[in-house]
Amino acid sequence: MTDTAFEGQPVSVQADSLPGGVADYIALLKPRVMSLVVFSGLAGLVVAPGALHPVLAVVALLCIAVGAGAAGAINMWYDRDIDAIMERTRGRPIPQGRVNPDEALAFGVVLSVASVLLMGLAVNWVAAAILGFANAFYVFVYTMWLKRRTPQNIVIGGAAGAFPPMIGWAAVTGDVTIGPLLLFCLIFFWTPPHFWALALFRSGDYSRAGVPMLPVVAGEAATKRQMLAYTLLLLPIAIAPHWFGVGGIAYLVGATGLSLLFIVCAVRVMLDKTHRAAKQMFAYSILYLFLLLAILIGEKLVA
Question: How far apart are CA 154 and CA 212, in angstroms?
Answer without folding.
Answer: 10
